[in-house]
Design brief:
This protein is mostly helical and about 180 residues long. The radius of gyration is 21 Å and the shape is elongated. β2 and β3 form a beta hairpin. The protein contains eight helices and three strands; from the N terminus they run αβαααββαααα.
Length: about 180
């Protein structure tokens, strides 16, 4: 995935300025899915406009530009969203850590797993609160995009929590079992 797809997705829901898009990345989107800062958003919008994916539809004070997705941009977004999963480069720090836990001493691995459990519990709690707030006041516009993603995140953190409990139990059984 790239910043281009993230920006196209946000702009497909509603036109926005670079400032407004940057604020999106400072909120839920940046916390849970994809981080991007001001220095990367503005140049990417310029590149996207040069490629015909977005266009400036309004210019305001202090050179504020409002961008909107073009038909070409919508087509690129659709193609990316509908492409088979698993086509991108995999970079998942949590899974990499899981692969490498064996490099630690057993007590260090147990401590790391307890950290995973705590991390997952915090995020499950935060996402449940987020979901409850959103159910009380249904979101509109770009805010509505986060509901499916929040549910995915909640289930992902719950699975991470359950895995870490299983792994900790497995590690403890291996430490207390006599060698064969």
């Amino acid at each position: 995935m790239s910043l281009t797809q993230a920006l196209l997705g946000l702009l497909a829901v509603e036109p926005a300025s670079g400032y407004e898009l940057t604020k999106e990345f400072e909120g839920d989107l940046g916390q849970w899915a994809w981080q991007a800062a001001h220095p990367s958003v503005y140049p990417e919008l310029v590149r996207m406009a040069e490629r015909g994916l977005v266009e400036v539809t309004q210019e305001g004070p202090r050179r504020r530009k409002t961008y909107e997705v073009t038909d070409k941009g919508r087509e690129e977004l659709r193609a990316w969203l509908q492409a088979p999963w698993g086509q991108g480069v995999v970079r998942n720090e949590q899974v990499l850590r899981m692969f490498l836990l064996e490099a630690l001493e057993p007590e260090e691995a147990a401590s790391a797993l307890r950290g995973v459990i705590e991390h997952a519990e915090r995020n499950v709690s935060a996402l449940r609160e987020h979901r409850a707030r959103r159910e009380a006041v249904p979101p509109e516009g770009r805010d509505a995009l986060g509901q499916l993603a929040a549910e995915f995140g909640l289930r992902q953190y719950q699975a991470m929590h359950d895995w870490a409990l299983w792994a900790l139990d497995n590690l403890n059984r291996r430490r207390t079992s006599p060698p064969a």
